[in-house]
């Protein structure tokens, strides 16, 4: 925690003028966190503490109507008041830009899972409904712009292969090629560009910003024509995490958001930050328009008796998602940073197995791949857990990496998973503060 302590000391000497630094800190705010019960609720008082460090606040999330392609509130009774409560925060924080995000992982519609693809394929009249309804909602509620976090088809999850299976897979690819998720990807890439161009033209007349979030595992090479796209966006946030998750990859656990490629154990070369970033840079996207996305939560797998004791990833024979935290009870295998911190031991000699045993942290001394923590299963195969996560220290390492690459800044997903109550070290929003300090 040395980096955190240094960052905290530095932050305490800074003033609100730090918000004028060149590097941006884009803070995502899931409005559902305001409706949670107990300590998980992120109310306006705690939000105020974070906004002295954020240059932008991205409010999530709005949805897309599959029949008309109108932008609409996912929680009308709540948002009708909360929208303006949030945009009025600019009176306290004049440096702040407040945007509304559409999609993300909140606009889930099982019966219309490809509605964002349908929007791209729609005719100009139908797309105009999306443009007009977006402008109306933004202007009526005082937002500065719209963030496009479209739920587009995602990469195929990494599969576990034994030695024979690996050779068979390579042989089969000679005839079948790579797994095709979207056979019309080239068409959709052009259609996405056209939609963004039309949005930009309309938004400029209303002095509205237009930004984009590349969601985890959405393949940029399939959908984003970078040379034609970047001039029409104010900035792009790369959500470069959740490359592996216990829901996508139930049988093996690995680093969820490594900075670099670790060329071992048949890892795929695109499941790292460096690869994702380089695609945009090599296609001539200005560095100052790119922001590195960092998650303030971790992903937890359940370990079996066959997973071993070391925890060294790739961890085999896992059993899907481990027990989730209390903040998002419905999301298996997801733990906020304070929930992870509460499971780490104060006494390193404590018992390390059983339901009440803490997790043992393994720090990445190379500062390339990430930290993890584990609790081996007991003799019955129960209570085992393996968690990949970014603590405040490693978030600071990633912020320093973003700065060294000359990026525009960092995007944090999201404020509600940081330790906003200071339960772990008595420092509130330690991840936010560490990132801000390391960007300065």
Provide a quick synopsis of the model:
Helix content is 31%, strand content 18%. The protein has helices spanning 2-12, 44-51, 76-87, 115-121, 124-141, 163-176, 185-205, 220-223, 226-229, 273-282, 337-342, 392-404, 430-439, and strands spanning 24-30, 56-64, 71-73, 97-103, 145-149, 209-214, 235-238, 252-253, 290-295, 297-303, 315-316, 334-336, 360-362, 371-375, 384-389, 409-413. The strands form three sheets. The chain has an eight-stranded parallel beta barrel with strand order 1-2-4-5-6-7-9-16, surrounded by six helices. The protein has a five-stranded antiparallel beta sheet with strand order 12-10-15-14-13. The chain has a two-stranded antiparallel sheet with strand order 8-11.
Describe this structure in words.
Helices cover 31% and strands 18% of the residues. It is an alpha/beta fold. The strands form 3 sheets. The protein has an 8-stranded parallel β-barrel with strand order 1-2-4-5-6-7-9-16, surrounded by 6 helices. Strand 13 (360-362) and strand 14 form a beta hairpin. Helix 12 runs parallel beside helix 13. The radius of gyration is 22 Å and the shape is globular. Mean pLDDT is 90; it is low at 4-20 and 171-177.
